[in-house]
Design a protein that fits this description.
The protein has about 90 residues and is α+β, with helices and mostly antiparallel strands. The protein folds into 2 domains: about 30 residues, no CATH class; about 35 residues. It contains 3 helices and 4 strands; from the N terminus they run ββββααα. Strands 1-2 form a two-stranded antiparallel sheet. Strands 3-4 form a two-stranded antiparallel sheet. A hairpin with a 7-residue loop joins strand 3 and strand 4. The longest helix has 20 residues. It binds zinc ion (ZN). Zinc ion (ZN) binds next to strand 4 and helix 1. The site of zinc ion has 8 residues, from strand 4 and helix 1.
Amino acid sequence: MKTCHTCKKNLPLTSFGTRSSAKDGKAGWCFDCARDYHAEYRRKNPELIRAIQKRTRQKNHAQYLAYQRYASESRKKMLASPDGIL
Ligand SMILES: [Zn+2]
């Protein structure tokens, strides 16, 4: 059991995320408090969130295109095979 530093509830260790730098290897706040904090942060900082999403999309664009090509070729192969499966 561990006490969440935000809601002060005594909860089982499975209610806490991992944090390698903490002595017990667990985060100081429970999943519910972390979720609420991050939801509030996203609500308060929509431009920042959009900028991060855009940057991530641009960073992964080549990988996305490669996957689309792979998926398209797989579909073509599947349709070309006589029994409709690979
Ligand atoms: Zn909590």
